[in-house]
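QUALITY CONTROL LOG
STEP: pairwise intake check
CHECKER ROLE: data steward
CRITERIA: each record must contain a sequence immediately followed by its structure tokens, with no blank fields

ENTRY 1 OF 2
RESULT FIELD BELOW
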Amino acid sequence: MSKQGQVALFGASGSIGHSVVQALRAQGRGYRVVGRSRSSLQREFGADPRAELVTWNPDDPASVREAARGVSTLIYMVGVPYTDFHLHPVLMRRTLDAAIAEGVERLVMISTVYPFGRPRTERVTEDHPREPHTFKGRMRKEQEDVVLEAWASGAIQTTLLRLPDFYGPGVERSFLYRAFRAALDGKRAQLIGPIDTPHEFVYVPDVGPVVTALMDEPRAYGQAWNLAGAGVTSQRELVERIYAEVGRRPKVMALHRPLMRVLGLFDPMLREFVEMDYLHTTPVIMDDSALRGLIEVRKTPYAEGIRQTLEAMRASDAASHVRPALAS
């Protein structure tokens, strides 16, 4: 088995995938990236000689097996559209079946706070009951159950890492992304309200090193782990910091549940957000003391994460303005 094939990233093109790739590169390790589009994989990872590019069709079990062939560790980060959450357990089961058939030794799945449902405690540990009251939460819990049951059967070593909301350079699927964009453009930020309740965010570049450390730790398998954010804050507080960093006064419009219901008649994504509204009224704040007792966890303070995110966005904006001139 080649060094490149030892670690495979299913769903590598997402923001978490890129963070894991950066961690593997920093360690000088080869890796396989698995995605639907060869051209996208080539564009994102083709310049790295340590990267092995493999395309798959997640709807085809034979294709999934081929993508897992020769792998010792599989990191699963496959996303689905917000409107297609029923696919999460289906794709997970298909991937695990393929991994077991191909003799993959370990699987790490990136999960979320959705399976917990409404929190019963101020801080949520890994032992908090998983009683989701939403469809999306039930699908994510079923996905987790598939992974944990595979470990219990002895067929493969598995573990889960749960993340809160996240932000960072290149992360457009974040509640905070529109605030960053609006601050740079001098416009009003639209946020999902209420925006003064406690909340936490993880800085995406911090996730990759945690995933690789967890992957390499034998004691990590057979259970789930929480990764909390860099501290309890609120959307309003972070937006004020973002606007202050660009030298502007904050301008915010909060979309509350009644308005989201109305706008959801025309916007399918907003319609889907209504179901998860509880996360902004009774937020899940995670306790990750167990993870920090297992591996080293470094977290970028919000002020520094905001500065680096804005810096990356400015650089991207400048590059997009230069490209047409170079092409002419």
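ENTRY 2 OF 2
RESULT FIELD BELOW
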Amino acid sequence: MVGSGKMKPTIDSVSSRSTDVLASGDSERKAESPVQIARKMMNTKEGEITVETPEDYSEEEVMQKLESQSGDERYDTILSQLEDYPYELLKDLANNPEMASFVANYPDLLEGSGKGNISKKELDEKCPLFLQWDKRWGAFRYGEKSVLAVSGCGPTALSMVIVGLTHNKEATPDNVADFSMNNGYYLQGTGTKWSLMTEGAAQFGINSEQLPADKEQMEKSLDEGGFLICSMGRGDFTLAGHFIVIYDYNEKGFKVNDPFCLYRSNQEWTYSQLENQIKSVWVLKNEV
């Protein structure tokens, strides 16, 4: 995967640094969540920061994308110590600039991974948006050679639904990921099994039922107080496989929480945009 010797393809053997690297002038943001920081960064002097449809960049193209951001303290940190970062994380950053602060601080975050917490504000939201690369849990291992930031969309999606339905503050993405690994819902080399969304959800007091990807049935399930988790194929959200949450809809389309991307979570998605990308849909509700 990596031929230059500059980037490592695994999570192991990273060095640590003592500083928290944020964008210039962002020292006051340290107490804010990654979602809050990303929302503030969506609009800049140059215009709105957008996230394009994911591309399968080559290593050379990944380097070009990162080097094009030279002058940003976070990217300069990454480029100066490429050996500290797994290649998969750099490739994700090339596709999603929202991750820049997380990736820059990744080596330091490894030591404190798996200590996630949920704020009162998030507990009170209808369906809180959790990003799998949130510094609270993004460096938590998921599988033998990966972390939540790279492959944890499944546990993160289920965590959003559990918290939204039950207000269980212990159901953080890292704890759901730990549950997934300990109970056989993670398949090495593939990722999260679909059964996490059914059998696994039941262990958190959630009823789950697979639905056909039908617009009327999806809307009816949302009207009845359920949330939808969708397994997505290649398209607007992913190159291979991904889980997203649909928590509401309006006249413009479905409201989505994408655990990988704030930009895509800030949009409504029409059924025609989603239907050919959906591989499976589950409706999740509180147990009666």
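INTAKE CHECK: passed for both entries
DESCRIPTIVE NOTE, ENTRY 2: The radius of gyration is 18 Å.
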